[in-house]
User: Fold this.
Amino acid sequence: MELSTIEKKLVNSWQRGFPLSPRPYALIADELGIRECDVIAFLASLKKRGVLSRVGAVVRPNTAGASSLVAMAVQPEHLEYIAQIVSVQPQVNHNYERENSLNLWFVVTASSDIELEQVLSEIEQRTGYDTIRLPLEKAFHIDLGFTI
Amino acid sequence: MKTPVNLQIDQHDIRLLGAIEDGLPLCESPYSLIGEQLQMSEEDVINRLSRMQTTGIIRRFGLVLKHRQLGFRANAMVVWDVPDEEIDIVAQKIITHDFVTLCYCRARHPPVWQFNLYCMIHGRERAVVEEQIDGLKKTAGLESYPSKTLFSRRCFKQTGARFSTAGKVNGGLYEQAS
Assistant:
């Protein structure tokens, strides 16, 4: 997906430090030398084109409960089906196929350790596969966004 | 992992994070609109978000991109088995590299998975990312540790953490512990 010059500026400048003021889009508009309604229209367009997930918060893991990275070793021919069963759980927020015998990797974010356990045993029951739980112990580096 | 006792966040903060989990509304006064939904003042919404950012609960606030759509398709998770007492020093070397998006220590899971140090590299071309990984191993003195590189293939799901659905399993509600 190609972005226009102004879209690139918008995307590169506002992945962090988004204005926390009553008219945030107007403030961005001033910086870019365009109108507030243009900023809103650009963001809506980026979202529609599947480039922008959202304008929002990236929250520290385990803020409101418990989370874990989880891996599964799924038979390749069953992967798509098993991945769907995993993705259906609202507590699963990332779910990727990776190049390894442990080929399905997902993150579960739950409100408590109890709920985390419940989601994982639910997934194990429904899929018939074991889950390998790899909880976070320490974060050294945070996601600062991408330069496009 | 144990649920951390977090005195910096209350139920209103969680409700607020839930209200913006699908994104801030694209209208002139988004914080005011969110406040109306939560029966909170615009000022309260802004102050809470600002405080959560200062305390590090919100790691960043702004545009969250779908990096794959923008050509970042060579997404590698590199893992190492590093002696526990060395992990801080090694991690500090890893994070000096601009191309490293995330760096974490995670629990090992022997005998299946002995790795404890993780880093993510998102790039446009696999060959470039492979070179970056080689460079990283040399400069951070990581060549002697067991390691694996797991490139991603398909993305089945990518959303932010959910706060509004917390406590719901299979649509049923049960007691929330936090």
